[in-house]
Design a protein that fits this description.
This protein is α/β, with parallel strands linked by helices and 109 residues long. 46% of the residues lie in helices and 18% in strands. It has four helices and four strands; from the N terminus they run βαβαβααβ. The two termini are 27 Å apart.
């Protein structure tokens, strides 16, 4: 299986009436550029990847993507914001750990 990775947006569709459509489109374009640059890094290292961009609440979307794709493991980074900050903002990593139906490895960054 070819590894897959993605850029997961924070769910602007929830706030469509509050966020300017131009802003949403700009964020999507930026996300696509980051994804393309990341693919290039993997390809330069001789690795083949499938890049996927999914919109929605990141923690749930990552977990759902892994389940629907039949993946048996998720590897995710953590910025190490601390327990208090993570509880206040609800980190993506914490949500992936909660929703995932497969093992999750967290890499501290």
């Amino acid at each position: 299986m070819v590894p897959e990775f993605g850029i997961y947006d924070s769910g602007f569709e929830t706030y469509d009436s509050l966020v300017d459509p131009g802003t949403i489109e700009t964020v999507k374009q930026m996300s696509q550029r980051v994804l393309e640059k990341t693919v290039a890094v993997f390809e330069q290292a001789g690795l083949k990847v499938n890049a996927v961009s999914v919109e929605g609440e990141p923690g749930r979307k990552i977990a759902d993507f892994a389940k629907e794709g039949g993946y048996d493991h998720i590897v995710i980074g953590s910025r190490g914001m601390g327990a208090l900050s993570g509880m206040a903002s609800g980190s993506v990593t914490q949500k992936v750990l909660y929703f995932a139906t497969c093992p999750v490895t967290v890499i501290k960054g």
